[in-house]
Amino acid sequence: MAIPDHRKLPLRLRLALWYMVFLLATVGGVSVFLFAALEYNLLKDVDDELGLRALHVERAIGTNERWPGNGQIASGVLELAPLEEFSAPGIYVQIINLEGEALASSPNLPGGQLPVKREMIAAALAGQVAYATVPAGRERVRVLARPVVSGGSVFGAVLVGESLHSIDVTLRRTQQLLVIGGASAAILAFVSGWWLTAHGLRPIAEVTRVARRIAATGQFEQRIEKPQTHDEVAELTATFNEMLASLEKTFQRQREFIADVSHELRGPLMVIRGNLDLLKRNMPEAEREECAIEVAEEVDRMSRLVSDLLFLAEVDAQEVVEHLPVALHEV
User: Fold this and answer.
1) Of 23, 60, 104, 201, which has fewest CB within 10 angstroms of its CB?
2) Which of 97, 77, 83, 72 minimizes the C-alpha distance to 147?
3) Which of 165, 138, 135 is nearest to 46 (CA)?
């Protein structure tokens, strides 16, 4: 499918489309920024909550009498205090020893183990704090791995995860609202741009209409009403009216000039035609000579008239005219 050349579209449509494109770009940029900022702040709140929960669990297991000083303990021996599901929904906790074995897990953890990579557990056992977003079925889980430190030594790691289901739902709804708002803004921009351009281009449309009427009829009587504003359109209208007045004067001078030339040429032509008719007859030699002299005089007169016409044409063409003193008695 061939894409139409935008230069062939009407100016009103092009301006309305440009309004819509610019507004879409602005709204799109602002929407992307707001969406990214919302996602960042929501994840930051989750990370802060995970950090507090991990610190709480670390302190709780540090006071547990069954936690060995060397971290060597069979899995499933430690027990975590039950989570308050209503105060911390979707929070999953898991304890890892130095061998990477799960010592304890919160009862609400699906499958009994968080789906984290070994690199994350290794980083926590090396004394580092790591965050990651991992898939868990159809949802995502934000996981924090934090080392358990006692006496300056790392004896295990705490994994705390939180489901991002509510955040994903919020982000999807926000994205839908931004898309709907952007589409509505684009439609509103197109309609308002169409109306504004129609209102702003109305004097230009009037100029076009008057110019076509003048081209069809040759009448310069009509003028365009100047807008009350002081902008480029008002200046264009005033310039167009001045041009019409100038063209009207020029055409009027041309009409008068053509009428005068026709009148001036008609006389010599009539004299020449009459003398030529006389020369066709049998006339005395003296009369024939007189007719020939009169024809020559009229020809000289026409030559001077043509020279004057050429001079006036040069003046109208704004060519350089040399100004010299003139002897009026000779003229």
Assistant:
1) 60
2) 97
3) 165
Please, what is the Cα angle at 22 between 17 and 26, to 5 degrees? 145
Residue 76 has pLDDT above 50, yes or no: no
DSSP track, 88-120: STTEEEEEE-TTS-EEEE-TTSGGGS----HHH
Distances (CA, A) of 56 to 4, 46, 62, 110: 66, 15, 10, 22
Q: CA-to-CA distance for 181 and 192, rounded, in angstroms? A: 16
Please indicate whether residue 198 or residue 30 has the higher confidence score (pLDDT).
Answer: 30
Beta bridge partners of 92: 161
**324 three-class SS:** coil
Query: Beta strands of the chain (E only): which ranges?
Result: 91-96, 102-105, 130-136, 139-150, 153-163
pLDDT in tens, 204-231: 777 777 777 777 776 666 666 666 666 6
Q: Which candidate, 133, 184, 122, places its Cα nearest to that of 156?
A: 122
Between 84 and 227, the higher pLDDT residue: 227
Residue 110 pLDDT level (bands cut at 50, 70, 90): low
User: Of 124, 123, 83, which is closest to residue 105 (Cα–Cα)?
Assistant: 83
Query: Which tokens hold the place of 5?
Result: 């050349």
The identity of residue 111, as a single letter, is G
- Calpha distance 130→123 (Å, rounded): 7
| Closest alpha carbon to 95 in 103, 87, 84 | 103
Task: Identify the residue with better confidence: 95 or 320.
Answer: 95
Distance CA(234)–CA(228), nearest Å, equals 8
Q: How far is CA 174 from the centre of its chain?
A: 25
Q: What percent of the chain has pLDDT over 90?
A: 7
Question: pTM of this prediction?
Answer: 0.58
